[in-house]
Amino acid sequence: MTEIIAENPARHTPLDDAQGIAFGSLMAAFGVLMLTHLGFVTGQTAGLAILVSYATGWGFGPVFFVINLPFYWFGYRRLGGGFVLKTFLAVALLSALTMVLPQYISFQNLHPAIGAVLIGFVSGSALLALFRHGASLGGVGILALYLQDKTGFKAGWTQLLFDACVFAIALTLRDWQTVAWSALGALVLNLVITLNHRRDRYIAL
């Protein structure tokens, strides 16, 4: 079948963006729910918030919201006010949902291997939705892009180094098997993003 690409693709309307951010935030919250149920960790700012939550007993939602606050300035400088506003809304919604969902969803049996793959798929779909509607879940990715602009140091390396630190710290709080399953989930998530986040393969911007 021949793929048809529109010459002048229609941009998302505010309603499109609203449902995309709502979907992405809800799916991300569901991913966090599975992740914390299994005691897993992950990378990026969410991983740091989870480690803080495990170490202190504080809720993930408030910690994630606060940790992201300093990164909005970098996002504004690098990607503009519209991106920062959408990202702030997505982060706030995710933070709130992670506090509400446990009252309505629980898991009787969730094998770590299946959980890791599901977490990767669900979280990957969440991020894809947010990216395609001009938002993100904030954090290190924004800082990495900013540093790349200012210093030339590749954004991917910044994120990789940060994630390596997060997983190294995780080994002091979790057993190596749990960290290994967590790494599988992170791998699946990154594969979902790598294989699907292609601007030349979808029409709406």
UniProtKB/TrEMBL annotation:
It is a multi-pass membrane protein. It comes from the Bacteria. InterPro entries: UPF0750_membrane, YitT. Its main location: membrane. The chain crosses the membrane at residues 21-40, 46-71, 83-105, 111-131, 152-173, 179-196. Keywords: Cell membrane, Membrane, Transmembrane, Transmembrane helix. It is found in: Cell membrane. This is YitT family protein. The lineage of its organism: Bacteria, Pseudomonadati, Pseudomonadota, Alphaproteobacteria, Rhodobacterales.
